[in-house]
């Protein structure tokens, strides 16, 4: 299996593992993920780069877990997303990220333990964080289109009245 396939099955590798054990595995990973983000946000001027294996060792993760971390930060990277499907421990990564995009993506992941890190208070002003939250919330608001009247032309383009076409 590739690292990416192993990551997609992370925590589910043991068939006899109980739900409680699975939760512990995931919580353990999330704690280490939070630690990596804390380091990155505390040292934003440092661009972290190296192989998956090297960086995993540096941040107390195995190769699969660090690939998972890269998968999580991937859409926030300035140099574009990596195609992680064929990555190995020797694959090189450069973790130079856009702060605002990263904050947005943490909101989107509903990762309060990440967007609530204290480092954000010095990196983005309260106004900037609120603006990002506002913009994020706008993308999650469903706006209904204009209601079609029964006697209006059908929006499907048939030329019939709505009540004689799609409104039946």
Automatic annotation (TrEMBL):
Q: What is this protein called?
A: SEC-C motif domain protein
| Xref: NCBIfam families | PRK05590.1
Q: Which InterPro entries match?
A: SEC_C_motif
């Amino acid at each position: 299996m590739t690292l990416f396939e192993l990551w997609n099955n992370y925590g589910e590798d043991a068939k006899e593992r109980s739900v409680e054990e699975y939760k512990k595995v995931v919580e353990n990973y999330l704690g280490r993920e939070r630690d990596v983000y804390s380091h990155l946000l505390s040292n934003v001027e440092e661009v972290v780069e190296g192989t998956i294996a090297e960086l995993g060792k540096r941040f107390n993760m195995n190769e699969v877990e660090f690939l998972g971390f890269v998968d999580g930060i991937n859409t926030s990277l300035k140099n574009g997303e990596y195609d992680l499907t064929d990555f190995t421990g020797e694959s090189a990564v450069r973790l130079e990220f856009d702060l605002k995009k990263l904050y947005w993506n943490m909101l989107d992941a509903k990762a309060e333990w990440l967007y609530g890190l204290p480092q954000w208070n010095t990196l983005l002003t309260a106004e900037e964080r609120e603006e990002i939250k506002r913009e994020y919330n706008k993308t999650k608001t469903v706006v209904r289109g204009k209601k079609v009247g029964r006697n209006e032309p059908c929006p499907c383009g048939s030329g019939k009245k709505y009540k004689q076409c799609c409104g039946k």
